[in-house]
Amino acid sequence: MTVHRLEEMSTPALDALERARTVVVLTVSPLEAHGPHLPVGVDAFAARHFAETIAERLVSARPGWSVVLAPTLHLGSFTFEAAGTIAVRQRVVRDALVDYGAALARSGFRFILVANGHAGPGHLTALDEAATIVSRRHGVTMASFTGHLAWEFLRGRYVRAIEDELGRGLTADERAAFAEDAHGGWWETSLMLLLRPDLVHDSFRTLPPARYSLARRLVPNYPLKNGGLGYVGHPALADPAFAKATTEVLMREALAIVEGLLDGRLEPADRHSPFFQVPFFRTNFWRTAGLTTAAVAATAGLLGWLRSRSRQPSKSAHPRP
């Protein structure tokens, strides 16, 4: 029942791990601007916390198993551009993960998970592409499922479970704020207050809500246009208790997926991000598609996604199981 850090292990120590009962977790997220109140490493902090918590729970639930945590890769595409953001081409993100996964597979590791804290559609697609390529080429199970969890979370699928963890229902205003939250807002500010409060500037308490219509969300870098401060949502609502409740729900959902993958009850494709199914988010799409067709498809797809995202979660829409 051991959690290891890859960079601290020797080759003999790695060779000694039983491959059939070892999981390797790759953590990958970009450095990206998250408003005036949060550090550029928000996504990476979130992904690392996710990876470490999953590792601890997995070895606790499975005596005799080991988890190896790889160092965080600060890589990500589909980011908002500002000072501190390091934008990486989608192809680079995919290929880096393919190389990491392939190296681990050649070393005999059979279970490789990708922990990620960034929800850019093309970024999530690149992670799914990499996992698919490595799984197919090397006959292992490599899975990136945090995009699936982020999608379900942002759609409000876990609202009832979050309310149960909080011990209270969300108010109507909170439900509206949850539906508008996207980047550097209520949830991410809450999470950083939980993980690294020393890195959260006190100005978050007085930041006004940043709401964006569907049309405005189609504009590149929209949170930083026309005086925008680079966040989307309601950072002033941030509360560590909210972060604790939401992460507990997300961890339970994640562990259920991981258990299914390890037992063979789930395939990585069963928990792909929905963006993986949309052609214009694929790494090679813009090289092969006609510009007009691509633009029309992209606009239609984004509008559909943003419409579904903009709906407020309702109690009737999320019945208790």
Summed up:
It contains twelve helices and five strands.
Q: Provide the number of structural domains.
A: 1
Q: How do the strands of the widest beta sheet line up side by side? A: 1-3-2-4-5
| Overall morphology | globular
Low-confidence stretches: 290-301, 305-310, 314-321
Provide key terms for this protein.
321 residues; alpha/beta; Rossmann fold; 5-stranded parallel beta sheet; disordered C terminus
Give the SSE layout:
Layout: E1 2-5, H1 11-15, E2 22-27, H2 42-61, E3 66-69, H3 90-106, E4 111-115, H4 121-138, E5 141-144, H5 146-154, H6 159-166, H7 172-180, H8 186-195, H9 214-217, H10 240-263, H11 285-288, H12 291-310
Parallel strand pairs: 1-3, 2-3, 2-4, 4-5
Structure report:
- By secondary structure, this protein is an alpha/beta fold.
- It has one domain (2-168, 246-310): Rossmann fold (3-Layer(aba) Sandwich), CATH 3.40.50.
- Helices cover 46% and strands 7% of the residues.
- It has twelve helices and five strands.
- It has helices at residues 11-15, 42-61, 90-106, 121-138, 146-154, 159-166, 172-180, 186-195, 214-217, 240-263, 285-288, 291-310; strands at 2-5, 22-27, 66-69, 111-115, 141-144.
- The protein has a five-stranded parallel sheet, with helices on both faces.
- Helix 4 (121-138) links the parallel strand 4 (111-115) and strand 5.
- The longest helix is centred in the last third of the chain and has 24 residues, at 240-263.
- It is globular, with a radius of gyration of 19 Å.
- The model is unreliable at 290-301, 305-310 and 314-321 (pLDDT under 50).
